[in-house]
Amino acid sequence: MGVRVLVVEDDDKIAAPLVRTLDREGYEVERVAEGLPALPRLSSGEIDLLLLDLGLPDVDGLDVCRRAREDGFTGGIIILTARDGELDLVVGLDVGADDYLSKPFGLSVLLARVRALVRRGSGAVATEPVVEVPAAPDLPGLRVDVNARRIWVGDAEVAATSKEFDVLALLDASRGSVVSRERLISEVWDENWYGSTKTLDATIGRLRQKLDDAQAPAQVTTVRGVGFRLEDARGA
């Protein structure tokens, strides 16, 4: 089965050529014109990638993005927006988007972004052995299973998007050592990535929150001017 893409866009002049182009490239494409009907499709587990307009007639696209992630959607999300304000970009990344494109955009640029997300979501990082950290007394251990692409704290699984998992897997493979921002961008996104580096910062922020919520005995720390490090929490 091919990659399944859901396009959520109310403007027929934008949606029609977008759907035709994706279909011609071999993707299985669905399109809805409102945000609320998209949510059950995303929670069905049948969609791999979401192309999401923000200015929808029934609900703000940011709410769709947030609710999709809360409902467990772990596929890629690319926001399509006519809003060019930095605040909207940061909020979009904070609620779970992987990438964004400002309208008007070229279809060739969109396809490049789609291919990059699909490539990373296909498990390109899953070539390292499973790394386990023994649990400390009274604390669950953090385990990153790169083969199954799952994160565990003790017996509890931590839900993560494709990008969140790839970032954590890369940090975990060098646990205790600094991984540069440049390496994270190159290996998790693309060596030719030209989007905002705020994408990485937002992903790191979500990972920190999820590890904190799961009471994981590890934390992602910032090494200013260099990158990030995954290290055991004190006493762990």
At the fourth CATH level, what is the homologous superfamily of the largest domain? Response regulator
- The termini sit apart by 43 Å
Query: What number is the mean pLDDT?
Result: 82
CATH class of the largest domain: Alpha Beta
Task: Give the overall shape.
Answer: globular
Say what the CATH topology of the largest domain is.
Answer: Rossmann fold
Number of separate domains: 2
Give the percentage of residues in beta strands.
Answer: 15-25%
Architecture per CATH nomenclature, i.e. the level-2 architecture of the largest domain: 3-Layer(aba) Sandwich
**Total helical segments:** 8
Parts with pLDDT < 50 across at least 5 consecutive residues: 123-139
Question: Helical residue percent?
Answer: 25-40%
Q: What oligomeric state do these chains adopt? A: single chain
Strand order of the largest sheet: 2-1-3-4-5
Strand pairing plus helix content: what structural class? alpha/beta
Q: How many β strands by DSSP? A: 12
CA radius of gyration is 18 Å
Largest β sheet strand count, sense and barrel closure: 5 strands, parallel
Sequence of secondary-structure elements = EHEHEHEHEHEEEEHEHHEE
What can you see in these coordinates?
The structure is a single chain. With 236 residues, the protein is of the alpha/beta class. It has 2 domains: 4-121, Response regulator (Rossmann fold), CATH 3.40.50.2300; 131-232, Winged helix-like DNA-binding domain superfamily/Winged helix DNA-binding domain (Arc Repressor Mutant, subunit A, Orthogonal Bundle). The chain contains 8 helices and 12 strands. It has helices spanning 12-24, 38-43, 61-70, 86-94, 107-121, 162-173, 181-189, 198-213, and strands at residues 4-8, 28-32, 49-53, 76-81, 99-102, 131-132, 142-145, 150-153, 156-158, 178-180, 218-223, 227-232. The strands form 3 sheets. It has a 5-stranded parallel beta sheet, sandwiched between helices. Strand 1 (4-8), helix 1 (12-24) and strand 2 form a beta-alpha-beta unit. Helix 6 crosses helix 8. The longest helix has 16 residues, at 198-213.
